[in-house]
Amino acid sequence: MATLVKAQSKAMTSSTAPDIAAMTWLEAAEHILKQEGPEMHIKDLTERVMNLGMVNSHCRTSLETLLYRQSHKPHSKFKRVIGRMGWFKLSNSVIAENNLSQSLNCCDEEEEAMMPKSVIVHKRKSKVIRREEEYGDCNREPDSDESDSSYSSTSDDEDDDDWSMKYRHIKGFAKRLIMTNVSLASELQSLENEISKSQQEKKYLLERLINKQSNARTTTTTNKQDQSKQATPVGGGGGATSVKVPTTPSNSNRLKRPLPSSPPVSHKPHPLTTPPTRSSEQRLIYNAISEPRDLFSTSSSSSNEEEEAAAGKRTGRALKEGTTKQNKASKEESIGTGGGGRKKRVRRLQAIPLHEDGSPVFPIKLGGLQVHSLGKVVWDRPSFHNERYIWPLGFKSTRSYPSMTNPSRRCLYTCHILDGKDGPIFEMVSEESPDSPIRASSATACHHIVLKAINEARDKQATNAGSGPEFFGFSHPSILNLIQLLPDADKCTKYKPTIFQQPLTRGKAHQPLPTSTDHKKPLLSSSAKKKEKPIPDSSLVGGAPLTVGGGTSDPSLAPVVNQLISYLSSDSDSNSNEYEHELVIDTSNSNRN
DNA sequence: GAGGACTTCCCCGCCGAGTT
DNA sequence: AACTCGGCGGGGAAGTCCTC
């Protein structure tokens, strides 16, 4: 009997509480619905999940949103109960899967051998009743007619019924699998057709490209010969480049449009030097087939946009981007740069609280990341910046992240950029072990150490996933923008500034953030400094008052003070004496280190 | 009109794949 | 190995619609 209880409790634990702490809302909801009933109201469901502590308490309830959204997806696990507002149920496929696994589990002979007959009978009985409720008649054989009486008869009858039930269930499951397979096969077929079409298009375009190239060479040779014969230049010269377009088997509409390589030459004064304007779609094809720049490279009138495209498309990556980034245009786009082949990216800023003068309110909170200090740009040491980032000395941020010792718990990591002999030193200090900071020569290396430790604690293989800059926060658009605006940032020669878009807003209007595309101005203007009010306490973590100008002997405050000094010194008109307000600065973290 | 139901938009973090 | 990029799903917030 003790064994039975043990087995039952084991089964219960494995089926009712599978790593509850690590569950998401959807997993928890699925679990509850599987365990407690086919349908449930959103409020009850939420309450059960909360009561059982199945999700992290810090998560705000959004099960409602999630379930509504899920219910719109074609293959979602959740369905709405028609006619009952706010009620949800599991989709049939999930129920079937659940029942199949249950039936497979339940027919574990060893387990059943240990159970008394009455328990087994009751279990099977309830199982069948539940299936009948859930499936209705969909899986029922025309001749099947089960009744409760069958369970009260002999044990042989029970076994037969049970096996026939399992047989029908598996049969139904197999049918569904076959249907899925058929639909997937047809989808595959259509995709293959599309691929073959694309290949034909590609072949056709390549043919045209080769044609065009050979014609261009011929024209160049002819022109040279003409020039040697005549002193006058070739006017409207492109006439010679008219290309006989080969016929193509492709029926694509796209190909019916005039392509850049075959402009109406008679109307173009310099078809070789003036590429026709293209739609974005045309440009895409243009990029994708890597049409040689040679055709237009002699032109001084080629747009900068094309310069970039040409620079990019020479690499395989750019070629790939040409096809995959089409839909990302709204998020990040390439724009003209004014030459030099530099590619500037437009990224969207996130709204951050600003003072009246446009300077940020510290700490800057961006999700799990808090930036306490931007630090100071070290422009005269090349190792403190690269093409993509500037690593300001004294940069300080904190981030909530899984603990290295117990990954199910989150702890606070403080990130610093320190001064090393050869360049910046990236330091991460875990809240749990402040005495053993992790230091590395790159942010990613630092982050990798943490990631490795966490993965080891989780018994997971370490991956190369993750980004140090992301972790530290200096790759975040809003932070990057602020760093770009720091004094001396423009002196970092290797650094290629990023262009930012103002954040999208819904409802409340935010104060527009300063960007590097705005007129360059220091984060704190002198007039603004005069008006500067103490930073509200609510935005700080245990702030301690500090009078600037009075000095501080605490070396740990140096980055903070440096930052203030850099602000103050950024405006030549400013006088530090004018800055008389008592500032409240977050010193708690500085003291911690 | 109030409150609940539902939708939409955006941000965040994880992680795999690709590039340097 | 270090780093970047992009996809994807979870989650929050705010808006709109609907019912009583």
Automatic annotation (TrEMBL):
Pfam families, per the entry: FYRC (PF05965), FYRN (PF05964), HARE-HTH (PF05066)
Domain of life, per lineage: Eukaryota
Region (Disordered): 132-163, 215-281, 294-344, 503-556, 569-593
Ranges annotated as biased composition (Basic and acidic residues): 132-142, 318-334
Subcellular location: Nucleus
Composition-biased stretches (Polar residues): 215-231, 244-253
Coiled coil: 174-208
Gene Ontology cellular-component terms listed: nucleus
GO biological process: regulation of cell cycle; regulation of DNA-templated transcription
Main localisation: nucleus
Domain HTH HARE-type: residue ranges: 23-93
Keyword set, alphabetical order: Coiled coil, Nucleus, Transcription
Stated name of the protein: HTH HARE-type domain-containing protein
Organism: Amphimedon queenslandica
